[in-house]
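Q: What changes when calcium ion is included in the input?
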Amino acid sequence: MKNFAVFVGTMTLQAVCLSVCLILVVVQCQVLDFTRELTPDDIYCGNLRCVAKSSLNNINIAIYDTTDEDNSVKLASISVFAPEVSVDPSKNNVIDATGNISKYDGVLNVWFLKDFDCLYGAFQCELDFFDINGQSGVIRENLTPATEENATIVYSLAQIATQLKKHSEETDKQLEALKQDNEVLKTVLDSILVKVSRIDGLLNSTLEKEQQLGTSCYRGMPHKSSRETFLLQEKLLALCDTETDGGGWTIIQRRVRGDVDFYRGWGDYKRGFGTPDTDFWIGNDIIHSLTSQGYNQLRIDLVYNETKFFAQYTNFIQADESSAYTITISGYSGNTYDSMSYHKGSKFSTFDRDNDQHPESCAKKYHGAWWYNGCYASNLNGAWADANDTGMGWYFNQTNHRNNVSFTEMKIRYISR
Ligand SMILES: [Ca+2]
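A: The predicted holo structure follows.
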């Protein structure tokens, strides 16, 4: 009398029809269609649906929880005499139920909130009815894990699929967020690259300047002009004579333009004054430092009466400040007179520091600053363009009086010994 079929529907993520039991009941030539389904969805772990279509009348549908065989509970029911769905008060918080019913047809839905009910619960659909002769009848159909093993597995798979879908959606969101982060990072990186490029440009230009500037002055060095600036001891902008007698001369005194006042005190001569592009005194401390490091060759270039002269010495040493910058000088060669020998062993004097052998101050008397002895055979720090003995004097021979020059360069060069 009963035709029963179970099938597991095609598994889709959204709605998996887990099982359908179709009961065809023929009661004295009258047909009853009674089905049940358990379907998982996104909110509930499952939906049990009992459906009756019949030519019987006065039907009443109920769903029982028969998990505990000794204490089955009527979860929900609906009757043609009581068309509102009735739910067991103790189950209100774990199931939802809906339904509708007429004299011949009815449907009762129960949604389960507890995974336990979906995975391990046992339920029963019950249909009460009266046949055409007024005889009552009952049909019950079970839905249990034991009989619905496939449904349970499929349900579990569907749960996993739902979770995977959620994870997938979260992953998509995270990916989107990462994309946005990536965009921000790309922007930041671009801006850093621009800055790096600027820094690189600055470094290159600084490097070029340094290469142009050079850091040394040595004999035979490659050069573009006869005088080139360079960084002496990595800190002092100095001037190199790159050509005279093979070049490599660090210029310590230069008077070619007359735009720098040389009548100065001890401190100025100690530290130096002027700049390589004008006239300058490099400074007594530097001269001492260089001559104590092997820069012992001294050359003095002069112009007198539009004629070039030079005096060169193979041994030139200047002591430190505590010795008042006393000079040692010897080994003359040149095309003028050795007007420095008179000054060897002499201390340096300025108008405010009289270290000379004269009763008066040679520096004041001759408007200069020099290694004055009893005064001078040379006075190259004297007054610019001064025709008197206060000018830039140099003796051109032993008997002649001094002459004033119009150009001087004093320079020293390293000699390996
Ligand atoms: Ca004196």
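Observations recorded in class: The chain has a mean pLDDT of 83.
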